[in-house]
Amino acid sequence: MKKLFTLISLGLLVTNVWSQNTENGHEYVDLGLPSKTLWATTNIGADGPEKFGWYFAWGEIERKDDYRWRTYLWMNHSINSEEGCNKYTFADNQTSCSWYNSDGVFIGDNKKELDSDDDVAAIIWGGNWRIPSLEQQQELLSNCYWVWTTIYDSNKVNGYIVFKAKRESDKGVITKTSSSDYNVDADVHLFLPAAGNRYQLNYNETGQAGFYWSRTIGTYDSQCAMYMKIGASTASCDYHFRCHGNSVRPVYKISGVPTAVDITKADMTTKIVKTIENGHIVIIRNGERYDIAGRKL
């Protein structure tokens, strides 16, 4: 966030207190949302609000160069297509897929939201950070004042300034022309850059659109997950294949999700330790070392 602005008429330098709040070293803003959800001011991997940050496939916690089914973590790799997902599946009537047996009976796990161990916000940022749910993204869309811009904090970058709404009539407004009484220096907001996304080896729609994962599986298909898409004339929630690489904008204070203390207690009980070795996540379980795919090291 742009933290300082000058009141020239008074000759004073004033700090925007609203942008100084942090959780586990990462800044957040309170947009006055009904659920009290607090949103991070940067994407994971970004060192400023206008920076794109890193891209992740849904349910993965490491970056990579190639985003497709054959590189996706939660896959039966003897299939290597959208029919081979082996975690986070529900009874969606796709009986030819691996979450049904040969008799057409559902045999999947019926998981519809990411476990904490597969939540990249929880793993990389720690504390009480999580990937937002679909409901939290929808709440952001319907309760804030959205202004598309091509410049943010003197940087040439496309994206949305998402303001805390000042009036009921401003909630859910998506516009390219800001009302004169919304000021990026003085008013509570966050910025979502149009970072594009990744598929296979490619970067897609960079500077034109932004794709932000939720932690919620697709409404109709197990091989998809919900995300928030932003563009110059629209912002909405949709779903696409989980193997794509999208941005992640974390949230803080999520009702009903275990806290960092709860997770630590669970890890202590099962003697699980997560650590970073040479830039990669290593899980130590009962003294044995595994990579994030569960392979013994």
Overview of this protein structure:
- This protein has about 300 residues and is mainly beta.
- It folds into 2 domains: about 20-255, no CATH class; about 260-295, no CATH class.
- It contains 3 helices and 19 strands.
- It has helices at about 120-125, 135-145, 260-270; strands spanning about 5, 10-15, 20-25, 25-30, 40, 130, 145-150, 155-165, 175, 190-195, 195-200, 200-205, 210-215, 225-230, 235-240, 250, 270-275, 280-285, 290.
- The strands form 6 sheets. Strands 3-4-5-16-6 form a 5-stranded antiparallel beta sheet.
- The protein is globular and about 60 Å long.
- Residues about 1-15 and about 255-270 have low confidence and may be disordered.
Features:
single chain; 297 residues; mainly beta; five-stranded antiparallel beta sheet; four-stranded mixed beta sheet; 3 helices; 19 strands; 31% strand; globular
Task: Describe, in short, the structure shown.
This protein has helices at 120-125, 134-143, 260-270, and strands at 4-7, 12-15, 22-23, 26-29, 38-40, 129-130, 144-152, 155-164, 174-175, 189-193, 197-199, 202-204, 209-217, 224-231, 234-241, 251-252, 272-277, 280-285, 288-290. It is mainly β.
- Work out the strand percent: 25-35%
SS-based class: mainly beta
- Compute the average pLDDT: 85
Shape estimate: globular
| Biggest sheet strand line-up | 3-4-5-16-6
Helix content: under 10%
Helical element count?
3
Q: What is the strand tally? A: 19
End-to-end gap: 41 Å
Helix-strand pattern:
EEEEEHEHEEEEEEEEEEHEEE
What is the gyration radius calculated from CA atoms? 20 Å
Biggest β-sheet description: 5 strands, antiparallel
Number of domains: 2
Low-confidence stretches: 1-15, 254-271
